[in-house]
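Long-time lurker, finally posting.

We've been working with Type-2 vomeronasal receptor (Crotalus adamanteus) and I want a structural starting point before designing mutants. I don't trust myself to interpret raw outputs, so I'm hoping someone here can both generate the structure tokens and explain anything notable. Sequence follows.
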Amino acid sequence: MKKCILFSWCHNRIFFCIGTSIFLSMEIVNNWMGFIAMTLLVFLFCIICKTYAINCSIPDDPLPIPHHFAQPGNVIFGAIVSQAFFFHNSPSFTEDPAQALINEVISLPKMYQHILALVFTVKEINRNPELLPNITLGFHIVNNYFPARITYKAMLSLLSTQQKFAPNFTCDLKKTFIAAIGGRMTETSFIMATVLANYKIPQAMDDDYGDMFLQKIEPLLSQNNICYAFILRTPRKTFLEEYIQLITMELRYDQLYMEDKVKVCLIYALTPAMENLRVIIFVASVFSSTPLGKVWIVTSHWNFESLSVQRFWDIQSFHGVLSFTVCSKEPPGFQEFLQTVKPSWAKEDNFIQNFWEQAFDCSFHISTINENSNLLCTGNEKLESLPTILFEMSMSGHSYNIYNAVYAIVHSLHALLKSSFRCRNVIGTEKLIFQNLKPWQFHSFLQSIVYNNSMGDSIAFDENRELITGFDVANWITFHNNSISRVKVGTLEPQAPSGRELTLNDNQIVWHRSFNQGLPISVCNDHCYPGSSRKKKEGEKFCCYDCVSCSEGQISDEIDMDVCMKCPENEYPNNIQNQCIPKMFTYLSYKDPLGILFITIAIVFSLISVFVLGIFWMHRETPIVKANNWSLTCILLLSLLLCFLCSFLFMGRPEKITCLLRQMTFGIIFSVALSSVLAKTMTVILAFMATKPGSRMRKWIGKGLANSIVLSGSFIQVGICTLWLSISPPFPDTDLYSLKGEIIMECNEGSVIMFYCVLGYMGFLASVSFNIASQARKLPSSFSEAKFITFSMLVFCSVWLSFVPTYLSTKGKYMVAVEIFSILSSSAGLLGCIFSPKCYIILLRSEMNKKEHLISKET
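Top reply, 14 upvotes:
Generated this for you. Predicted structure of Type-2 vomeronasal receptor:
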């Protein structure tokens, strides 16, 4: 096993030969001489491997990484940055890669601050006598040009020595590589972890990933009733022709900037994707139409990095961007350090020349000045003179992360050295070299480290090895000269109590100019206001819906309710159906205008009845009164008087006693009145039939027959009412549903069948009287009232026949009013039709109220 490990350090070709020799040895294992030959061959390869390891005579790298920055030290930090990239054509794979593959390197000037932040941190630590005394920190920074495949090469370059691309060779015993700081791109960090895991080297990295972000954000949006209109993946472009294709296909992404309903765009993207997004929006503004104003919400990866060529691009589309940036503070002396940066400040810095030329739009080579129409770089340009879109003098959030990451590793190493001194050997003048120090030895120290940095911030990691920190909510304000300003408008503290993680100062937020500082509203459609509910649109997101008015009897008292709710039984919806109102108790009261009208009519006709009765009493000895049967006349007038007065039982709040009496009283009194009319009609007919010679009807003439008819007719109705009371008597009740907004207080008839039996019996009496009176209306008598009875029964039947459908079609107090009207009108009809002609003769035509006139009329 040890030999295998040893050979794994050798060149790939030798490792392949070893595999071949082992395969051959299996064929001749039974041959003793073959075994000896195999052993000699193995030792020969070991000698070759050792020779390579001592001399490090590795061929030159055909495609070295030109952008790197190294500073020697006893302890070396490695760092992968993405400060520059290049356009190149697709490889043909017909020849080895060479430097000619790179057409032109393009720098992201703003990201050069990350390199300077690491250099500043190392210099600050080397000046601190309390951290790692007598130890010099060094660093090795390598650019990965963004593509993931180059990250492998950049990572292996950090593990190589003597500027040779020779992973696993130990050519320089003075280089102690203890930790690596990962890049901002997730893919870069994962690749670094894959490589460094083999060597157990600690790494400070970013662990977010786009797909994981979607998996986490989608359920959170749904829980908060937020939906998205679309998801677009910004294309990843590597080769030059792919960028050209991106420009020609920008219309595929017009939803992102032209969708009118979408006012908020949540962007989770790293630097390359954000640059592609800026290209898409720039092309849209130049070739198609001006992008609509949006609220861009971006994550901490975005810091408005721009290429030098983009310094003149319009950035007003991004006015009002809200971004989550890592909470950061600026270490003392950082800006002073930036002011010292010059092209000649460090000859090991292979980044600065390209950065300087593109940031200041100048050139260090005279030959390219006329070609590119730019100025000659003097080297005296000031970083603070650059626009903020290209470079910031204040420390960014990612630079602050680098600052803390370096300090975290140094504090962990310092704790390791304090706890164990056997890992170091002192050589010469207090120079320390860590021959036996292994990076994995301070993993536990790094996980448990807690310290305060120079700004007083506490730095620690949680159980998931994530930095315990918060975020600032920054509002990016753009100006017409293409300068930008970043204003802190809130904080996000993941460790805060639930519901208090996010704090925003709404009044400080500057929105895109298209919103005129009004609160942006980004909805699929307007809210469904109280009085309506949401109905999902087929094939649309859950937040896209139609607003449907609530059904009858239902309300919605909140915005965007999914279902309308019913009001309680004693309440009803208002006109706009957004709240329930208590129902009003309703009944025909004495104070009601309709009640007052009925009371007036009832009293007037009651007085008329009394007046008629008085007239008949005063003229009871006259022929016309005698001819009309005085006793039946009194019974009829008294019953009509009671009919008028019984209407009072139907008015007022229904009580138990009034409910029991109203229909019974009405039915019995009307039966008495109709029985009296029937008796009067029978008396008239029998009187004329008795005048014929030999008639047997003479014996029926008298008060006995009339009284019998009245009593028998009335007792039958009394029997019906008694049966009604015994089976299912009327009772007070409330009707909650018949009328909107009203609770009808009524008398429930108990048995509707018995109620109509009462009415039916009255109709029977009226129809019998009508038929008999019709037969007697042509009798020769001046005082014959048969024709008046016929007309009164016609009025009576007409009223009560129209009563039934009208009564059934009305509700509430109007149902009671219909019955009162029928009682009063039918009673008035009987009173007027039967007694008005007699009163007319008694009062106005007294000459007709004589026996002679009666006899002459009969003859």
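Before you design anything, note these points.
The two ends are 157 Å apart (CA to CA).
The CA atoms of residues 678 and 769 lie 5 Å apart.
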